[in-house]
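Exercise 3.2. Students should predict the tertiary structure of the chain below and write it as structure tokens, then compare their answer with the key that follows.

Predict this chain's 3D structure.
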Amino acid sequence: MTFLDAHNHLHDARLVPHRAEIFERLAHLDGYRAVVNGTCEADWNDVARLAAEHDWIVPSFGLHPWFVENASAVWRERLLEKLDAHARAGIGEIGLDRWIEPHDLPRQIEAFEWQLALAAERNLPASIHCLKAWGPLWDLIRERPVPARGFLLHAFGGPAEMVSGFLDRGAHFSFSSYFLHERKAAIRDIFHDLPADRLLVETDAPDMAPPPARTRDPLTDTNGKALSHPANIELAYTTLAELRGASSEALAQQIEANFERLFGDQISL
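Answer key:
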């Protein structure tokens, strides 16, 4: 059974003290591969370094909405350099966010539009973040070109009534074990009903930790806050299969086909 993590941040500094333990756990997961997403200029080199060291990593480089206001004047040139230097790379994590304070939505939209257009022009997989900005995101996805291969709405938490429109535009949706928290019942209902050929699975490690009672061998940061572990991908697969009434093997085969369709030119399967 193959485990494919469609979105994480394995390079994140919070995971560095645990890296040996993380790699040991991942070695026990059959066929593990992961898309590792950079979020700003400061971490793109870390993503590139990890991808050079581990052929099971698909690098992805993008300017996250949280970091738009602090981006340098040449961030676009630097992003192009990274993409040109890494033929396997996708674009992400990009998106819109009205949850973070303060935020400048017009600047976020400007950065997102440019990156989405680049993904569409090069037909690269785009990993998209959205918090409390689903209306503006939909307006852009509806009106602008998107990659022919589709795009990922990572850890989708939007309204159920918007799903069909995103599906029509080529969206894939990734399930996280974070959705096992009791307050996420409505999101679990969405993933119960999504078309099987648009499902992916992710951890978003080190963020979006599952409920403590469901976490095996939990990790914490220096302040004792729970971290999502990349090996939580196994929990995400198991619980998504249960949610959909599917066998783990059948789900894994479907996820692999979906991952290949979205990221297939990016890795050698």
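Discussion points: Residues 105-122 form the longest helix (18 residues). The two ends are 14 Å apart (CA to CA).
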